[in-house]
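Hey, resending since the last one bounced:
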Amino acid sequence: MPKNYQHILSLVFAIKEINEDPKILSNISLGFHILNSYYTARMTYKATLSLLSTQHQFVPYFKCHHQNNLIALTGGCISEISANIATISAIHKTPQLTYGSFFPVEDVKSLLPFLYQMVPNEAKQHKGVVQLLQYFRWTWIGVLAVDDDKGDRFLQTIVPTLSQNGICYAFIVRLPKWNYLDEIIHMILHKWEYFETLFERKANVYFVYGEPPSFQALRILLFLAPFFSVSPLGKVWIVTSHWDFASLPVQKIWDMQAFHGSISFTVHSNQPLGFQKFIQMINPSWSKGDGFIQDFWEQAFSCSLKMSEDEEEGEENNKLCTGEEKLEHIPGILFEMKMTGHSYNVYNAIYAVAHALHAIYKSSCKHRIVHHFLRHIVFNNSVGDTIYFDENGELAAGFDVTNWLIFSNGSLVRVKVGRLDPHAPRGKELTIKEGLIMWHKSFNQVLPVSVCNDNCYPGFSRKKKEGERFCCYDCAPCPEGMVSHQKDLDRCGSCPEDQYPNKEQTECIPKDVSFLSYKEELGIILVILAISFSLITTLVLGTFVKYKDTPIVKANNRTLTYILLISLLLCFLCPFLFIGQPRKVTCLLRPTAFGIVFSLALSSVLAKTITVVLAFMATKPGTRMKKWAGKRLSNYVVPSCSFIQASICTIWLSTSPPFPDIDMHSVSGEIILECNDGSGTMFYSSLGFLGFLAIVSFIVAFLARKLPDSFNEAKFITFSMLVFCSVWLSFVPTYLNTKGKYMVAVEIFSILSSGAGLLGCIFSPKCFIIVLRPELNNREQLTRRKR
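The structure tokens again:
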């Protein structure tokens, strides 16, 4: 292939530099001999044996001419050729420096100790490819591998590696080897449907594993694709350092646009000073010893250097080469003016041998072979790169990430867009300059996407599709209360306790601190109500004190009336303990103040109800109830009931007292500051005792509702207890079903409404008579009986 001729030129250029350099191997000239392998094992063995034999005599293992002293072998370009050479050169203990790839063999150094590889282990490139795929988030790719033992081993290694790194292959295609044309023809004729599917897949990135001969097989398939109405364009081809975008002369008119924008990992290379000037001097007459120049020149320029008379008559269109053609006019797919990676490897291999020879001549052990010095050789080449081999005999170097720009006129440009340094710290091996990359024109310079399906954006998580690879998934919305802030997360996460998900469930935002405040509308309304009822109660109490000597005030125990009004006043002031940020003191006072004050009020109502009944029964002749009428009964009922409630509160505070608490989970988006009841049993015991007093008062008042009008305060107590019980019966389910500050508001509203029920139902009729109908406030009216 014309492009491989640069490998020869780099060898010649390196030896020319060494022979002209007085600082290395002075007074010693290096020579060389080059043979073609033709990419076949038979020709490779023949060429190697001829190098190891007597000049002009094919006698293996025997040499008699000192001038044909073989020091080292350089080759080959592909792994199969290198392996074939190695089997023979190892027997002769002759160092072999491969400038292309080499078949990956475990413990290769112990099997082939005389082998030196100018390309680092290909496993390092595979890791770089995986990192590249992860960098661009390409998770659904096509894999193409040469159909041989090396391709088998590659697939056995790369498939698990891709899976472990979250990458799936959409398909695997085996490429036939170039020297098996029958396989290529069979694939085209009988398996074209498979390749048609290949180019219609949604995978936009193809990872190709092979060597230059495999590339020719792929080119044939791509060239024939349009004839089957299949377009192979719009793909990103990722290749390793073994690959080269080169054309055979017959292919130079074939379009190479399908490979525009490809990315490859190439061994780090530089441009030796003077190399371009050297190759510009080349012409067919430059060296009589060059057995390749004629074939190269004729293939590259499509002309003939010598033409017989028969050829002149039969080939009118076959032009004659002038010998003055310029190499820079050749398309890059046929020949490149800049030194390629493989040629740079040849250049460094020759210098490595020269420095090893130089070390031998400088040492006192001139009988030792080159191999012993190659292992430890370290030198800087002409462009400043440090060259040395590691313990495995591999060149200690990194890789350039190269973007291939291939234009319609056949010109080719390599752009270095990154670097793969296997010796860099973990996670920093690969660096990419994304802005320098030119993608295929079908992508319109937008980063290509190669995934099985669209990404799951924040707010969603991936849900596996049954029967498909893990890279193919559905997108499910995050459950309530959970978030996903990145694309393609496997599961949604929870927010910290002091944060909650936003509406889109894409991020966590800080929760608002919530408690019933004096500054908000609900708190202000409840405060106004509490103050209003307190003022009304105070006004009623003042009215009863002012008219304390009137019959309607003195009736039914004036002391109980005062106790009831004072307890109601205290009830209306209780809400001030519930409004505002919960503190330790307010949390302790809330249940005790509420329970004791309401117990005092209800016990006063109960005492008044019983007093009404006893007062009526005491008027009957011969009854023994007269001694219980008056203040005697109230002296027992009110203190005893209040004592029981106080005892419950004391036990509550001494065993499990209420305390300020923070609730982060009940209400989404809020941190609730509340008073924890401490003991739910004691809370409902206190509330239950109040319910017991209310029910007893209601029953007694209900039974006394038909007493004569003058004594029928029980009718109003019945209504008040009915309101009271209704309020607190509805309070329990409402309280349990509300959260946060609204729970506190329900509690305050129940306190105010039940107290207002007692105040309104019991005292509004009396206030009406005292203030508006004073003529009814006399003894005659009170003692009048119902007929």
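The first strand starts at residue 73 and ends at 74.

Sorry for the duplicate.
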